Amino acid sequence: MDRVVTMANLPQCSRCRGDLLISVVSPQDDAAGRPIHLELCPACDPGDIDRPAAGILLQYFADGGGRDETRAQEGAQLLVEWSRECMAAHGWYWGPAPTMPFPSDQWGFRR
Description:
Blueprint: E1 22-29, E2 35-40, H1 52-62, H2 72-88, E3 93-94, E4 109-110
Antiparallel strand pairs: 1-2, 3-4
Helix pairs in contact: 1-2
């Protein structure tokens, strides 16, 4: 089941213990069976050369894109790219839906 939950207080960044802008628990687990947590941190992500989509998404929010309804499609595309980037860091990639669905493949991520 797809579910989005908004919260007034997000957990702290696992890298710097600062405030997160986005915190997501992925529908996939890591190789050890633990949930994968995706984090967008204004302190850690803007200068990370290995994570350019995170920096671009942070700039979108800094420029007021998150409050501008005319930029909603742009924001959605940036969120997809950020999700791809985060999942790739965990060995997953975005692919077409399988012809024979498996429970872990319902989101289109492949290992």
